[in-house]
Structures are given as structure tokens and as C-alpha cells.
From TrEMBL:
Entries under Gene3D superfamilies matching the protein: 3.40.50.20, ATP-grasp fold, B domain (3.30.470.20)
Coiled-coil residue windows: none
Gene Ontology cellular component terms for the protein in this record: cytoplasm
Keywords, ordered alphabetically: ATP-binding, Ligase, Manganese, Metal-binding, Nucleotide-binding
Organism per entry: Nitrosococcus halophilus (strain Nc4)
InterPro entries: ATP-grasp, ATP-grasp_RimK-type, Rp_bS6_RimK/Lys_biosynth_LsyX
A Pfam match: RimK
Xref: PANTHER family: BETA-CITRYLGLUTAMATE SYNTHASE B-RELATED, RIBOSOMAL PROTEIN S6 MODIFICATION PROTEIN
Gene Ontology MF terms: ATP binding; ligase activity, forming carbon-nitrogen bonds; metal ion binding
PROSITE patterns, per the entry: ATP_GRASP (PS50975)
Protein name per UniProt: Alpha-L-glutamate ligase, RimK family
Keyword Nucleotide-binding tagged: yes
Chain ranges of the ATP-grasp domain: 107-290
Length: 303
């Protein structure tokens, strides 16, 4: 019997979709939460995962790592690292999650690999942040202040002048600043979410916001988008740059009609994307995991 664990802090639609996608292969799905796991050196594997006893799962899909203290997050990632080191396929790997949950590290890796991404600065010192803001103002650019760890457009602020920076609430005592990319068409606030599995783009949608924040959680409308070759290539370059198995890649068009990668999300939701495009994303993820498990029935499916 093949057993796969889905880790999330709350199970719902996404877990249901994955369970339905894995069911035809006789996979037993175990829904778990990393906060409920522990390191236990009295056990043969050194790990305790509720629902598995003293055994390891055959595979793992990470749907979420809940917010917590630095120590709590470290322990949860320790569990994922241990599973990977014990030979269990983990999608996405803990290393991939660490590379992408930290926006500054993602920005660096995209830059190192030559993937177009907005100019970015990250620092702890207020004076350094002030100088970056003053330089942007002199160049007639705006900035966006973002939490280093964050999602769904929460906690981001548009910085038009240095005075705006002075009144902002800074997350974690750190300034993560990106150059603001104005819309390619005036007052048309939109970007694209592309879903990539094993460096292959399988679905895309355009998100149109009422304002410059285009996250679905902030009220943006979603429309299916053709799998544009240029954007698809760029999204796959981004996933290779940060070495993720699957990701939601956010891309924006610049006023000069070029494209830049805004973000690579290694624990993306896909409900809006699947409902918008009709593409069974859970099935693609299930097959990616099955490929790593070398499941005997995989070749009967349509990848």
C-alpha cells in the first residue's frame, strides 16, 4: 500500500482535489500538519508523523507551512529535511521552500540566473532604506515595500517618496523594497499567474485588480490566458533558477512591453486558476509525485 502525506495547517478544497487525483492509483492519502509532527529519537526513523506510527510515508506533498515563531518554522522544516534525507520524495523540497518563501533570496537567485525581475533592495538599516527611496524618487520611480515573508498581497505598501517610507510599519525590522512596475496600459492593473510543474507551464490566467494590488485575495478578477510562449519560457526559467518542482509564477508586463517575474510561490493555491481555466492542476501534481515514486500505473495516465 502506497501512502502519501499532505502537509497543511488546514485541509479543504485543495486536499480534496489531490485525494481525488491520487485515488485512481490506489494511493492512501494522509492529511497532516507539520505542527503536529515531532522529532523523536526513540523511534526508528527519528520522526513521529501522526497516522503513520513508526513508519515513513512513501511520498509527501507540502501544501502549507503555517506561520509561527522562528523556532517553530525551523522545526517544521527540520521534519521535511529529515524526510528528504531519508529518501522520501517531498514536493516541494524543504530547500525549495526555503529559497522561495524568502523573497530576498528568490530575487538574488533570479538575478544570478539572468531572469528579468524588478530592481530590489533588502536591508535592516533605516538610513540605507532612506537612501534607496531618495534615489528612486530622484529617478522618478516608485517603490513597493513588502514583508520578506508574506503572501496574498498582505502588508505591501507603495512608496512614492521618502516621507511615505517613514510612516510605514516595517515587518520584522527589515526593508524589502522593489521598484514599482507601472502598468503597460495606463490604469489597467493586471499581471499573470502561470502554474509550472517540472519546469513545464500547464496553466495561465490574467489577474485584473481594482487597484495596483492584483492578488485574488484582494478582489482581483481572473480570466483564462493563452499559454504565451514568451511568458511560459520565462516562468520555467524562474522555476529552474530557484529549483522548485512546482510553483505559481507571477509575471508582469512593463511599459516597454517586456516581462518580469514578480514572485515564485512554492506553496501556491490553485483554486482560482483551476476554476478559471478548467485545467486539472491536482492531477498534474499527483502525476509529478507518482513519477518520483515510479508508480507502475503512471504510464496509463495522460500527462
Amino acid at each position: 500500500m502506497t501512502r502519501v502525506v499532505i502537509f497543511n495547517d488546514g485541509h479543504g478544497w485543495h486536499s480534496d482535489q489531490l485525494e481525488a487525483a491520487l485515488a485512481p492509483y490506489g494511493i492512501t492519502l494522509i492529511r497532516s500538519n507539520l505542527a503536529q509532527c515531532r522529532i523523536d529519537l526513540d523511534r526508528p526513523t527519528g520522526l513521529h508523523i501522526p497516522g503513520l506510527g513508526a513508519e515513513l510515508p512513501d511520498g509527501v506533498l507540502v501544501r502549507g507551512v503555517a506561520a509561527g515563531s522562528f523556532e517553530q518554522i525551523t522545526l517544521r522544516l527540520d521534519v521535511l529535511h529529515a524526510l528528504a534525507e531519508l529518501g522520501v520524495p517531498v514536493l516541494n523540497s524543504p530547500l525549495a521552500i526555503e529559497r522561495t518563501v524568502d523573497k530576498a533570496r528568490t530575487s538574488l537567485l533570479l538575478r544570478y540566473k539572468g531572469v528579468p525581475t524588478p530592481r530590489t533592495w533588502a536591508c535592516e538599516d533605516w538610513e540605507q532604506a532612506r537612501l534607496v527611496s531618495a534615489q528612486a524618487h530622484q529617478e522618478k520611480h516608485e517603490l513597493v515595500l513588502k514583508p520578506l515573508f508574506g503572501c496574498q498581497g498582505q502588508g505591501i505598501t507603495r512608496i512614492g517618496k521618502t516621507a511615505d517610507l517613514e510612516t510605514c510599519e516595517v515587518s520584522g525590522g527589515l526593508y524589502y523594497l522593489q521598484e514599482f512596475i507601472p502598468p503597460a496600459q495606463p490604469n489597467r492593473w493586471q499581471d499573470w499567474r502561470l502554474f509550472v510543474v517540472d519546469h513545464r507551464c500547464i496553466a495561465a490566467m490574467v489577474r485584473r485588480g481594482r487597484s495596483w494590488i492584483t492578488n485574488v485575495a484582494r478582489g482581483a478578477e481572473c480570466f483564462p490566458a493563452a499559454l504565451d510562449r514568451e511568458m511560459g519560457t520565462l516562468a520555467c526559467q524562474a522555476t529552474r533558477a530557484v529549483a522548485v518542482d512546482y510553483a505559481g509564477v507571477d509575471i508582469i508586463q512593463t511599459p516597454d512591453k517586456g516581462f518580469q517575474v514578480l514572485e515564485v510561490n512554492s506553496v501556491p493555491s490553485w483554486k482560482a486558476l483551476q476554476q478559471t481555466t478548467g485545467i486539472n492542476i491536482a492531477k498534474a501534481l499527483a502525476e509529478a509525485l507518482l513519477k518520483r515514486l515510479q508508480h507502475p500505473y503512471l504510464e496509463q495516465s495522460s500527462w
